[in-house]
Amino acid sequence: MNKGTYIILLKLKNELSFEIRKKKYILNPGIYAYVGSAMKNLHQRVGRHIDYKSGKYKKHWHIDNLLDKGDVLFSFIIPDGIYREEEISKKLSEKFQYIDGFGASDLKVKSNLFVIDDNEKFFLEIKNIIID
Fold first, then answer.
1. Which domain of life is it from (predicted)?
2. What is the pLDDT of residue 103?
């Protein structure tokens, strides 16, 4: 199946500031998790995100601002055909600091981008969300 939800874990080595739709974002160095979905071409979407720095792609999604300067560490692909982006973002927002409004303009969530300050806690939460 080539549709579902994904989570990209990435690292920013330096402070990053950018603007999206007149909203300014300033992100500190650290680890971030981004939640997204693709109801078609899931594997290609994640592959595009991982390969963004190659220069083959134009900026299109919010996450491209981070992909341009950050390093992808890990990606989770959940190819179950179920739209789980909102569910996962809501659960992560209960456990982790989030970047308000980032990547969530079409959803009823606070954000799709989370600050991961405890890797072990993050992976445990992902396990609990996906497997349990």
1. Bacteria
2. 76
Number of structural domains (the chain) is 1
Amino acid sitting at position 100: D
DSSP conformation class of 29: S
Question: Minimal CA–CA distance to 125: which of 5, 10, 33?
Answer: 33
End-to-end CA distance of the chain: 21
Helix, strand, coil distribution of the chain in percent, nearest 5? 30, 30, 40
Instruction: Give the residue numbers spanning the domain of 23.
Output: 4-130
Amino acid at position 86, single letter: E
- 98: β partners: 114
Question: Is the pTM higher than 0.85?
Answer: yes
Contact 96, 27 (CB under 8 A): no
